[in-house]
Amino acid sequence: QFPLARLPVASKTGTAEVFGKQSTSWFATYAPADKPEYAVVMTVITLAIVATIGLLSSSITSLLNQVVPLI
């Protein structure tokens, strides 16, 4: 579980799509949300099956939980 009470963040997700090619998802976040000092942007190549069963958000959450303690 991400410690939002200790470090409030603002985030945005999106998908870059090109016809006939694999989609790429992106995730951008900054913290603290009220006075930003850090920004993290990640891209994830989206496999159709991953997006369908909802594993993409858990993958991004896992990556973010590894990055945030480093900053």
Question: What does this entry show, briefly?
Answer:
This protein is of the alpha+beta class. The chain is built from two helices and three strands, in the order E-E-E-H-H.
Overview of the structural elements:
With about 70 residues, the chain is an alpha+beta fold. Helices cover about 25% and strands about 30% of the residues. The protein is built from two helices and three strands, in the order E-E-E-H-H. Strand 2 and strand 3 form a beta hairpin. The longest helix has 13 residues. The two termini are about 20 Å apart.
Structural features:
elongated, single chain, three-stranded antiparallel β-sheet, 2 helices
Mean pLDDT score: 77
Walk across the major sheet and give the strand order: 1-2-3
Distance between the termini: 18 Å
Determine the structural class based on helices, strands and strand pairing.
alpha+beta
Beta-strand residue percentage: 25-35%
N to C succession of SSEs: EEEHH
What is the number of helical segments per DSSP (H or I, 4+ residues)?
2
In helices, the fraction of residues equals 25-40%
The residue ranges in which pLDDT falls below 50 over 5 or more consecutive positions are none
Structure summary, number of beta strands: 3
